């Protein structure tokens, strides 16, 4: 759909329970909140938009994986995803999550999280139609290239800190 | 008649009845649409009411609430139920709050540029497209991305979403888990049935269909589905009435049989005397099935009630038999009087036929055929079957004492004057309004049902059933144009909170003129492509991504404008069809209103349109209809009364004797009215029907008491027959008077009072006892 990747920066915070907030600073201020099965989108100078989490399965997946990861809830992770873990001697690791729900899998093919020792560095959301969303987390966020390519981001995520 | 011939006659009679029964079972279609029991509407508002009562958008709406589970499970049930009902042709619209792109037909998708008001203020130029595309880019990086991604290439300005928002109910309830929820944690759905709201039979089927679809959903076991709305109420009211009428009917049937056994002490007499009534009922229904394609349920219910008069014929025959007298001879002696009674009753019911109301015509045909068959079979068939040896009632000791008592009663000449004065005084004293015009008051609904309905209606912003804004023009386009012109005024009214919402037909379909104007604003392919290319500068979208958008805009430029006929084939078209109806070469637009706060402001809306726009109060229209209805029945009754006087005077060949029959009957009828008025009862149509039945019974009492035979034993038999008739009528209708449902109570109370008054007055005003 796009011939160039879309870059946004901001903050993703876990508000506890099944609630996530995503605040975008650049290029356009926007706050999205997932709470009680509903997504609320607030953009500057416009009326807020609401929709059900059920309409956005990839958000449900994101929510499940985040809450389970951040809350350390392995059982929940196992329930929603097939989990595959790889690692090497240097301390780099990759966690691959494949949704178990066939309906969800129609939009979200997999989630991959790259990390090093005890910190997550990147999150890749592979959508079923080929689109890929890459989140650079923590200190790596500052190193987002101005004109990123898939390959460059891949290299960045798997490089040693 | 010989034994063999008697058996042959009995078997032949039963065979004919069986044949009639078979024919009735093959041909009888019972309709439950209450409208066929209403008079033909005369004013345009009444005609509109008759349609709206049945087919108006408000009256066909069912409000559903599901509760008793967690929100997530309720939402899943709501989605499942909506999906199941959308496939069912019994429901024309199913809404549960979930956003549904499917509401706009795929083939109609290019029409979005003609339906949405965007183009009225905003050309599809470079600046607009650039702004929209930037917003879409932000959308793509937002959580809404997966929701909108599919739409983007074809609809980058999200015109479809604008339409969906425009067509969503004006005040929608809270959305949870993607579906509507009430503040009381119930999942809410709105279902519009294809069937008329005032047809309890069809509504019952629609509600059963919803319950079945709900029960078939996985996980529905722990949750409860509660319907509400006018259609559901008509089902509840009909079921309530039937239930009470059934158990009262069972008790009084047992009592009736016991009474006849006690009176005649002959089982075979009892069974045989049921034959004329059974013949009457079957012949009546058979005649109806021949004359009308559908028979109304109320016709049958009222018809059986009115046929109660015919039960008197065999009772008279049984009571008037002397010991050893041939049954045929005793019937012959009674026949002139019976014939007078039958003829007068038929004439009274003929008045119903003249009323012009379909249901009443059926009622007239049923009772007239029934009475004639009951009378003729009592005269020509029954006497041949009755047992030879009977017990002469005239020798019963209690009867002799009763007759002596009756004969000794003082019969001053001033009785009629005193009774008439009392009637006038009571009628003058009664304070409550005379007529009950509110049909709903006769079948009241439990208060908790009404409260729930009000609560759900408010939560769903469902339109009021009482008010409609009517827009009239020579053509459908004229109505839509009128509706568009009215929109700014309506918006101003809504801003002032005169009402919570007011939906006009143009909200769903703009007029052809507006569609053409929007078409003219659509740029041609080259212009649009140029604007799009410039807008895409600096944005990361693929250059050819929006080709489907450009194609759609081109298609929209040359589309024939959407007309109501073409629109009607889509799900949304159904919604419009309910708001735009042809009538007598005119078209009417119906605006639905919810939450009326300032009635005067709404009425003022069409003040300067010379009647093209007006507020219709369905309650007022229905009351005026009932008033018309009553006027017609009263006129018919007046005509019948005149005919009755003539018939009786001719039959008795004496005005003085006719006076002795008709005076007690008339006084008793007015006495019932006066007593009910003093007791605070408001008179409804059902009271009038009951008064006519009581009048028919009273006519029998008066006719037989007036008969001067000069034979004391015969006088005793007359008293016996009359007492049996009075007691059986009191038994049946006295039971009904205890019912809690006002319709049944109205009939029961009126007939019981009537029978008692007719009996007393016809004894007290009978002439011959004084001359003895």
Give a written overview of the molecule.
The complex is a heterodimer of chains A (161) and B (772). Chain A is of the alpha+beta class and 161 residues long. Helices cover 22% and strands 43% of the residues of chain A. Chain A has one domain: outer membrane lipoprotein receptor (LolB), chain A. In chain A, strands 1-2-3-4-5 form a five-stranded antiparallel sheet, with helices on one face. In chain A, a hairpin with a 3-residue loop joins strand 2 (19-26) and strand 3 (30-35). Chain B is an alpha+beta fold and 772 residues long. In chain B, the strands form four sheets. In chain B, strands 9, 10, 11, 12 and 13 form a five-stranded antiparallel sheet that branches. In chain B, strands 3-6-2-7 form a four-stranded antiparallel sheet, sandwiched between helices. In chain B, helix 18 runs parallel beside helix 28 (655-678) and helix 30 (712-737) runs antiparallel to helix 31. The longest helix of chain B is centred in the first third of the chain and has 35 residues, at 230-264. Chains A and B meet through strand 3, strand 4, strand 5 and helix 1 of A and helix 3, helix 6 and helix 7 of B.
Summary tags:
heterodimer; A: 161 residues; alpha+beta; outer membrane lipoprotein receptor (LolB), chain A; 5-stranded antiparallel beta sheet; 10 strands; 22% helix; B: 772 residues; 4-stranded antiparallel beta sheet; 32 helices; 63% helix
List the helices and strands and how they pair.
The complex is a heterodimer of chains A (161) and B (772).
Chain A: E1 9-16, E2 19-26, E3 30-35, E4 38-43, E5 49-52, H1 57-71, H2 74-80, E6 81-87, E7 92-99, H3 102-105, E8 108-116, E9 119-127, E10 132-136, H4 150-158
Antiparallel strand pairs in A: 1-2, 2-3, 3-4, 4-5, 6-7, 7-8, 8-9, 9-10
Chain B: H1 3-27, E1 30-31, H2 44-55, E2 61-67, H3 71-86, E3 91-95, H4 112-115, H5 118-121, H6 126-140, H7 145-148, H8 159-167, E4 174-176, E5 179-181, E6 187-193, H9 200-215, E7 224-228, H10 230-264, H11 267-291, E8 295-296, H12 297-307, H13 312-319, H14 327-354, H15 358-380, H16 382-385, H17 397-408, H18 415-429, H19 447-460, E9 467-473, H20 476-495, E10 499-503, H21 512-521, H22 525-536, H23 547-558, H24 564-567, H25 571-577, E11 580-583, E12 586-596, H26 599-604, E13 613-617, H27 618-652, H28 655-678, H29 685-706, H30 712-737, H31 742-764, H32 768-771
Parallel strand pairs in B: 1-8
Antiparallel strand pairs in B: 2-6, 2-7, 3-6, 4-5, 9-12, 9-13, 10-12, 11-12
């Amino acid at each position: 759909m796009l011939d160039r990747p879309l870059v946004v920066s901001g903050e993703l915070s876990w508000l506890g329970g099944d609630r996530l907030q995503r605040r975008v600073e650049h290029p356009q201020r926007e706050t999205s909140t997932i709470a009680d099965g509903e997504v609320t989108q607030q953009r500057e100078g416009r009326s807020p938009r609401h929709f059900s989490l059920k309409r956005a399965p990839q958000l449900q997946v994101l929510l499940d994986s985040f809450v389970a990861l951040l809350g350390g809830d392995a059982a929940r992770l196992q329930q929603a995803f097939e989990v595959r873990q790889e690692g090497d001697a240097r301390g780099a690791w990759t966690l691959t999550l494949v949704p178990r729900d066939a309906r969800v899998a129609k939009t979200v093919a997999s989630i991959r999280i790259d990390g090093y020792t005890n910190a997550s560095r990147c999150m890749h959301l592979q959508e079923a139609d080929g689109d890929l969303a890459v989140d650079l987390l923590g200190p790596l966020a500052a190193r987002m290239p101005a004109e990123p390519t898939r390959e460059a981001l891949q290299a960045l995520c798997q490089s040693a800190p | 008649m010989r034994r063999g011939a008697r058996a042959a006659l009995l078997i032949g009679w039963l065979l004919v009845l069986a044949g009639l029964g078979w024919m009735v079972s093959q041909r009888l279609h019972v309709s439950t649409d209450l409208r066929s029991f209403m008079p033909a509407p005369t004013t345009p508002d009444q005609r509109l009411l008759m349609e709206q009562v049945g087919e108006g958008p408000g009256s066909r709406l069912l409000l559903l609430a599901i509760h008793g589970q967690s929100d997530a499970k309720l939402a899943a049930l709501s989605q499942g139920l909506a999906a199941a009902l959308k496939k069912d042709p019994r429901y024309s619209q199913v809404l549960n709050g979930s956003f549904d792109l499917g509401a706009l037909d795929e083939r109609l998708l290019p029409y979005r540029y003609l339906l949405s008001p965007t183009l009225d203020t905003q050309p599809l130029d470079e600046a607009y497209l650039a702004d929209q595309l930037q917003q879409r880019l932000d959308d793509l990086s937002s959580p809404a991305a997966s929701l909108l991604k599919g739409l983007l290439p074809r609809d980058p300005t999200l015109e479809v979403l604008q339409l969906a928002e425009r067509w969503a109910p004006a005040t929608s309830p809270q959305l949870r888990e993607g579906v509507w929820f009430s503040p009381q944690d119930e999942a809410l759905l709105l279902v519009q049935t294809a069937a008329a709201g005032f047809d309890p039979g069809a509504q019952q089927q629609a509600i059963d269909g919803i319950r079945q679809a709900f029960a078939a959903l996985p996980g529905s076991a722990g949750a409860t589905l509660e319907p509400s709305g006018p259609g559901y109420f008509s089902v509840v009211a009909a079921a309530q009435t039937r239930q009470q009428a059934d158990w009262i009917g069972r008790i009084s049937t047992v009592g009736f049989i016991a009474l006849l056994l006690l009176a005649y002490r002959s089982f075979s007499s009892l069974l045989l005397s049921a034959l004329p009534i059974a013949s009457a009922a079957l012949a009546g229904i058979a005649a109806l099935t021949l004359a009308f394609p559908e028979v109304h349920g109320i016709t049958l219910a009222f018809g059986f009630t009115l046929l109660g008069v015919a039960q008197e014929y065999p009772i008279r025959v049984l009571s008037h038999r002397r010991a050893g007298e041939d049954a045929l001879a005793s019937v012959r002696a009674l026949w002139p009087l019976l014939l007078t009674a039958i003829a007068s009753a038929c004439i009274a019911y003929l008045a119903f036929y003249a009323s012009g109301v379909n249901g009443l015509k059926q009622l007239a045909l049923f009772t007239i055929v029934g009475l004639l068959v009951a009378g003729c079979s009592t005269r020509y068939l029954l006497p041949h079957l009755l047992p030879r040896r009977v017990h002469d009632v005239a020798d019963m000791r209690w009867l002799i004492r009763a007759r002596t008592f009756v004969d000794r009663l003082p019969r001053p000449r001033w009785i009629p004057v005193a009774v008439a004065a009392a009637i006038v005084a009571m009628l003058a004293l009664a304070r409550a309004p005379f007529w009950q015009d509110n049909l709903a008051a006769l079948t009241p609904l439990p208060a908790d049902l009404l409260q729930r309905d009000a609560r759900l209606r408010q939560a769903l912003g469902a339109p009021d059933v009482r008010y409609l804004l009517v827009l009239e023009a020579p053509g459908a386009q004229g109505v839509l144009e009128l509706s568009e012109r009215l929109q700014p005024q309506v918006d101003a009214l809504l801003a002032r909170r005169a009402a919570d919402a007011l939906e006009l037909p143009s909200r769903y379909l703009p007029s052809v003129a507006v569609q053409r104007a929007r078409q003219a604003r659509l740029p041609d392919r080259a212009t649009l492509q140029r604007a799009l290319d410039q807008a895409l500068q600096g944005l990361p979208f693929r250059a050819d991504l929006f080709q489907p958008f450009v194609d759609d805009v081109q298609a929209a430029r040359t589309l024939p404008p959407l007309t109501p006929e073409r629109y009607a084939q889509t799900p949304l078209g159904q919604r419009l069809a309910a708001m735009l109806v042809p009538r007598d070469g005119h078209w009417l637009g119906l605006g639905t209103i919810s939450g009326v706060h300032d009635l005067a402001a709404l009425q003022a809306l069409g003040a300067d349109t010379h009647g093209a726009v007006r507020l219709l109060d369905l309650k007022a229209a229905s009351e005026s209809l009932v008033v018309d209805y009553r006027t017609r029945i009263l006129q018919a009754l007046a005509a019948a009364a005149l005919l009755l006087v003539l018939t009786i005077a001719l039959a008795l060949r004496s005005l003085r004797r006719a006076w002795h029959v008709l005076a007690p009957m008339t006084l008793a009828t007015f006495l019932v009215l006066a007593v009910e008025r003093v007791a605070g009862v408001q008179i409804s149509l059902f009271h009038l029907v009951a008064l006519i039945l009581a009048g028919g019974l009273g006519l029998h009492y008066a006719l037989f008491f007036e008969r001067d035979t000069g034979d004391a034993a015969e006088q005793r038999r007359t008293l016996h027959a009359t007492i049996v008739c009075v007691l059986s009528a009191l038994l049946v209708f006295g039971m009904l008077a205890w019912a809690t449902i006002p319709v049944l109570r109205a009939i029961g109370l009126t007939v019981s009072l009537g029978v008692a008054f007719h009996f007393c007055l016809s004894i007290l005003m009978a002439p011959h006892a004084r001359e003895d």
